[in-house]
Design goal:
- 19% of the residues lie in helices and 29% in strands.
- With 184 residues, it is an alpha+beta fold.
- It has 2 domains: 23-69 and 163-183, no CATH class; 74-160, no CATH class.
- Strand 1 (42-47) and strand 2 form a beta hairpin.
């Protein structure tokens, strides 16, 4: 039996269950029996502009999780957030600014991202970024927004991060506890 706690109805019927990720929702999620979570093969949650898909592989006893913005412009992987532009957009020359901090050249973050194990390759040889700018998670965990100029002369885009930390905490409570659980 799948545990369902509906705290509100989403604007779209695409969302089966919508949670306002709050203490009440998390208590509702954790109040079921241990078997309630493991019987479901896939659960979908959405709140504050973020979606979480939790797949339970009961054979391997593993959880596979995908956390991203509902508009699919922000992707989560362990140790990094990816900000997506058109796949064909070359973002090697991108600069970003977190909240009101100083601008940072994305290429300067490569050593930090690689050392953390973040997968930053996404395209082919002609565009190795695949249109995604990856930022180390430690820089954005408490941020409200990220502004990115994907190229030297490109228009900047604003990405709102409201709700990310709460949804990531909810993912951990739902079984996505190891870095290996997350897919980007």
């Amino acid at each position: 039996m799948m545990l369902r706690c509906v705290l509100g109805l989403g604007a779209s019927p695409m969302y089966r269950v919508v949670f306002s990720v709050s203490a009440a929702a998390l208590m509702c999620l954790s109040s079921g029996s241990a078997g309630a979570r493991t019987d479901a093969t896939k659960q979908r949650f959405a709140a504050d502009g973020w979606s979480l898909v939790v797949r339970n592989d009961s054979f391997a006893k593993q959880y596979h999780c995908r956390l991203r913005a509902t508009d699919k412009r922000i992707l989560y992987q362990p140790n990094a957030l990816g900000f997506a532009f058109r796949r064909s957009r070359d973002t090697l020359g991108a600069w970003y600014r977190i909240d009101d901090r100083r601008p940072v050249r994305w290429q300067d973050q490569f050593p930090t991202l690689v050392a953390s194990g973040a997968a930053i390759d996404g395209g082919g040889l002609d565009n190795p970024t695949g249109g995604i700018v990856w930022i180390p998670i430690d820089e954005v965990t408490s941020a409200n927004s990220v502004r990115i100029r994907p190229g030297g002369d490109g228009k900047e885009s604003v990405f709102r991060l409201t709700g990310f930390s709460r949804m990531r905490d909810a993912a951990h409570r739902l079984g996505c506890v190891s870095d290996a659980s997350f897919e980007s």
